[in-house]
Amino acid sequence: MAVLPLPADQIPLVLQDLLFRLKVRDVMTRDLITVRRTDTMRYARALMKTHGITGLPVAEQDRLYGIVSMDDVITVLELQRLDDPVEAHMTERVVVLEDDMPLAFGASYFDKYRFGRFPVLDRNGRLCGILTSRDISASLLIELYKEYARLEARVPAPAPRRTPGERLRFTVRRYDFENAGRAAHEIKKALTARGLPPELVRRVAIAAYEMEMNLVVHSVGGVLEAHIEDGLAEITATDEGPGIADVELALQDGFSTANDWVRSLGFGAGMGLGNIRRVADDFSIRSAPGQGTHLRAAVRWPPADTPPPASTTTGAEPPR
Amino acid sequence: MTLDDARRALAAEEIHLPDAARAREVSGVVATDLMSDLLTADRVGCLVLTALASDQAVRTADLVGAAGVIVVNGKPLPAGMVELARELGMPLLRCRRPMFESCAALARAAGR
To answer: Which residue, of A9, A29, A88, B63, has the fewest CB within 10 Å?
Structure first.
């Protein structure tokens, strides 16, 4: 595994910029859990356990006196001296960071000193925070998300195609339960906007939702597409794996390969494929293990009557 | 039975219940924790009773055209679920009673 800091020439410019733009104070944890010099090591140990941390600054009124770590606790346990005051076992010569140092500097300390955490002092030498490697990775991730969002916003959106028919395309990710159902919702909205009867919309929405959930639960991720035109709504789900070993078996109600975790979310009862077939007028499935699955479901309705000749049309009323 | 009748029968807490939805007539009740069941139930305008406190309960209810969702067992609702109910305009309530007792109370209120 690579160790931070990577050589400067291996870090993308965006990241280098971030590491220098962010200050230690932007990233550090401010809610400090500290002990006093006179507290017992037993207390320090309990505090670490309660908060799931491995080190505590020893401080009184923002003045830093030292640091106790899990290593110190282990030593005290071996010596059976848990009731000693913290000051008897703490490290007094603490390596600290200053709050206005660039993050790049803070990151380099982890490599240089191999400690798990560094107390942070402000310009007056008062303890104001603590920096862990987790703080650094979390903040960099957040900043990178922002950077990506900025870059994505610059990619021009493809011009919508609203020819007689309408095509919608959604990328569906594996185990993305948070967004699962959004594609089906959009498809439902598009159908409702066309003034189709609710019962018809409902059948397409159910098929789309079941197909979307299948992509989320069973595939490595894939694409859900809707093609809507007068008299037809066609939904396809395409993924690149893992494929279905026995399609006939998978079509039987109650057959499921979903795990308990998926079931706890209310899915994976083995009704999906059967339900799609039930609500759709056309249904087809193509799949093989190691390859992807391609599912197609269509709902049909009698197309609207051809509009009356132009001479009798008075308004812009759409045909019903 | 209207949504408001159901709310009263269960002494349910309103999480998101727009005034316009109170008088909404419910066509029946689907009591399930399995969204797959709800998707196959074929009951437009039904009231969904579930112990599944997740976004998907609201989303599925919306997709099948349910009248509303009542979460039983007084389960804590994730913030996303409440937000989604507002976004989709799906009435969302919560009651303390467990599933069976909730069903029984609704049946009594419906005079069955």
So the answer is: A9
> So what's the ipTM on this one?
0.83
Q: Residues A216-270: pLDDT tens digits?
A: 988 899 999 999 998 999 999 999 888 888 888 888 888 888 878 788 778 877 7
Chain A partners of B59 at a C-beta cutoff of 8 Å? 180-181, 185, 209
Q: Which CATH architecture has domain A166-300?
A: 2-Layer Sandwich (3.30)
Whether cis (ω within 30° of 0) applies to the bond prior to A5 is: yes
Digit-coded pLDDT (tens) for A170-190: 999 988 888 889 999 999 999
- As a whole number of angstroms, the distance between CA A270 and CA B63 comes to 19
CATH annotation of A9-149: 3.10.580.10
A205 contacts in B (CB within 8 Å)? Answer: 63-64
How many Å lie between the alpha carbon of B9 and the closest alpha carbon of chain A?
26
| DSSP-based three-state secondary structure for A226 | strand
Torsion over CA: A199, A204, A205, A207 (sign): positive
End-to-end CA distance of chain B: 12
